Every structure is written in C-alpha cells, then in structure tokens.
Amino acid sequence: MASSSDPAARTRGYIPPQNDEERRLMKRAEELCHVAESRGIPRYTGFLSDREQMLAEAACHKAGCEDFRFWGGFEGAERRVLCIEPPDAWQEEPTACLRMQTYDNGTKLPTHRDYLGSLLGLGLDRACIGDLLQDPRDAAVFYAVVLADKAEFITANFSSAGHSPVHVEVCNELPPHLTEGPARELHEATVSALRADAVLAAMMHTSRTKAAEYIAAGRVEVNHLPLRAAHEAMYAADIITVRGIGRFRLAEIGGKSKKDRQFISFYQY
Length: 269
Prior knowledge:
Elements: H1 20-39, E1 43-48, H2 50-62, E2 68-71, E3 80-84, E4 95-102, H3 112-120, E5 129-134, E6 141-147, H4 151-157, E7 160-161, E8 164-171, H5 176-180, E9 186-191, H6 196-204, H7 208-216, E10 220-222, E11 225-226, E12 239-242, E13 246-256, E14 262-268
Antiparallel strand pairs: 1-3, 2-3, 4-6, 4-8, 5-6, 7-8, 9-14, 10-11, 10-12, 12-13, 13-14
Helix pairs in contact: 1-2, 6-7
C-alpha cells in the first residue's frame, strides 16, 4: 500500500467530554489522582471502555499525575482499570480471573450475552466486569476478568447463564492460548473519500447508500461515540462499531491511487 505523506494529519485528535456523564468521569479521575498523590496510596477505578480510558488519561495529565497505568487482567484487554499508584506505595491487585464452565444439559450453550446478563443480574454494575472470553478449545468454558473485591461475591452467587447451570471458580491467570487470540487479517481497500459512509461501505462490502442508512438509524459508533452524519471524516486508529454487525478498526490511511482513490487498511473484529 502507498504510504501517507502526512500521517499525523490523518490521526483523530483528542475529543473532549460530550456530556455530563463523561465530565463526571474526568472529575472523578482527577480527584483520585489528588488523593493518591496527597496520601501516598494507590487508587483504582472500575473497568473503563476505550473511550473512558481516553478521557481518564486526559484527566490524569490535567491533574499533573504521571504515576498511572491501565490494566485489564491481561495484555491486550479491551476494558481496563485506571490504576493510580504513587512511587513506593503499597499496591493492590485490582482484578481477578474467573473460570466459568457449563455442562451439557441438552440446552444451547450460553453465549457472551448470556454470561454478561447473568452477571449484571446479580446487581453488579458494568464497571465491575472486564472482558469476557470464550475458550476456543472448549466452547463450554468462559473466562471473566472482574474487580478483585467482587470475585468472592460472584463465585458464591453465580449459578447459571442462559438456561444452563454454571460452575464458577477463581483462577490465578488466564490460559496463555486465550490471551494470544487468533491473528487478525489485515484487509485493504480503496475509497473515493475518507467520509464515514465511504469507509464503512468498504469495510462492510456494501454500498454507500446502505452504509448511510446504518448511520442514519443510529447504529454506528466511532470510538464509542455516536456517528451523527455520513459525511464525517474518518481517521487512522478509529474504532467503528456497527450494532448488530460487528466492529472494525481503521489501521492505516495510505496514499492515493492513479485514479485518485484513497488506500486504507483495516481489521475486522
């Protein structure tokens, strides 16, 4: 693929908080920074989405805090906890791993949605639960990363998902084959413009008209924010989620072809 002559100009900049909920998140992160630094103790949030992590990182920088990291129980986790840990302070392990296994009782094996729904049905907030991963070697087994202080409660109260009984136990770590994951294929395409409808159409192998319909119906998010118009520009590293279809990441924006079309490469999750 041809490379961009100005890659920096093709990367989306920081998007400030868009609503009161996001402003509260940033304020809370700043407060945790001040408490951690003034008292010399570590502070942790719940699990944050990609968008929330971006805002939390901005809040830490605004507070002048450098002693922070994000951790989701394993390298490459999508949902992660903000860990603010002053030098020489005692540190906690903010996450725990659970192994959840169902047994064949003649019903359909529970899905990711079934497990998540049952966990939330215990009265837990979504921020208590990180990534949920199905074992590719055993479809009857799921692993969950949860807040460490919720692990005992979950193991004592979680008994079923979907229509199947489930056995839950704490495990020291996730199996290596689970966190490695399958290699994602890098796809390449050309688009007439870096408009959302054109890029989405290329990713979904559909028409721009159909892509625009998804956007107009409110089914598309970019970096966890609603995509409001088909003509909005797309940038490298953007995460595009289409409800009911899947998720894509715009990996790279290259140069132009002889027919003045833009080269792009992307991953499909």
